[in-house]
Design goal:
Blueprint (H helix, E strand, L loop, with lengths): L2 E14 L3 E3 L2 E3 L3 E3 L7 H13 L5 H4 L12 H14 L2 E11 L9 H12 L6 E6 L5 H4 L3 E12 L2
Parallel strand pairs: 5-6
Antiparallel strand pairs: 1-4, 1-7, 2-3, 5-7
Helix pairs in contact: 1-3
């Protein structure tokens, strides 16, 4: 197959005593995302989207939260490892589209930095990555500022 598409999703609870990391960027906020790693929902969703496009399962299969090796790891490192899978399978990233759903904090001031960081990690031009930030209009755990979720879509193209 010349083109492949994958979808990723992740959600983490916001808790006190943790840094908020999204897309590998530290975001100023009173709470951070609870997780075995740094809890970066953006990176986790991107990893799942890329793995899905490759038919290689999900992030938990490759980097289990039961493994001490991945305890408190920077999720950016996981994305770099997944990007190596992309190359090993003979694909390259065609484009990525990300939706971050957070009632707070406002992410507009961080979108450019997140985009630059992810593109740098993946070795792609910024025109191949789109980041959208949405709220949940006060609805459910996300809307009550108890969690942050992320959806990602990855399109891959076979290198010829």
């Amino acid at each position: 197959m010349r083109f492949r598409v994958g979808i990723g999703y992740d959600i983490h609870r916001l808790v006190e005593g943790r840094k908020l990391i999204l897309g590998g960027v530290e975001i100023a906020h009173s709470k951070g995302l609870l997780g075995h790693s740094d809890g970066d929902a953006v990176i986790h969703a991107l990893c799942d989207a890329l793995l899905g496009a490759l038919s290689l399962g999900d992030i938990g299969e490759h980097f289990p939260d039961t493994s001490a090796e991945y305890k408190d790891i920077a999720s950016s490192k996981l994305l770099q490892l997944v990007n190596e899978f992309v190359a090993e399978c003979g694909y390259k990233i065609n484009n990525l589209d990300v939706i971050v759903i957070a009632q707070e904090p406002k992410l507009l001031p961080y979108k450019k930095q997140i985009r630059e960081h992810i593109c740098s990690l993946l070795g792609i031009r910024q025109e191949f990555l789109n980041i959208k930030a949405k709220t949940n209009e006060g609805l459910d755990a996300i809307g009550q500022a108890s969690a942050i979720a992320c959806y990602a879509t990855a399109s891959l193209i076979k290198e010829i």
